[in-house]
Design goal:
It is a single chain. Helix content is 9%, strand content 36%. The chain has 1 helix and 13 strands. Strands 5-6-13-11-8 form a 5-stranded antiparallel beta sheet, with no helix packed on it.
Amino acid sequence: MKLKEIQNLIKFVARSGASEVKLEMEDVKITIKTSVDSPQVVVPEPIVLPSQQQVVQPLPVSPSSAQPEISKPTPPIEQDNNYVTIKSPIIGTFYRKPSPDKPSFVEVGDTISEGTVLCVIEAMKLFNDIESEISGKIVKILVDDTSPVEFDQPLFLVDPS
């Protein structure tokens, strides 16, 4: 990864408002952590390659507006009350409907199965279908339509029985 690409990544994360971003590729691992109270700093983990030796130095970054962080979906987590919480796999805007003139994907009381589309999360002008990883019945919808959501934020409670 070239220094210019790393600088562009830092600028993107600074504008995104994400609290932490990890990027792992074949030849480099980068972790960018941000906080509201202190300046943002990139802390890359240097990797020495057999063909070349290059160390990436941390660069300061300034905070800005929110953009999403993309990652793999988080598996649902069991709660004490036997309900499963389905959480947001990305940062973005939560939509219950595929478009304003269409019905909601799911309602409280609906029975769902694995692969059922539950909602859409818009991230960087891309609409990502959020599918169920379990079968069950929707007990509660925890987020209002068109609300911003964070990574790992609970979206739905599902009764798997």
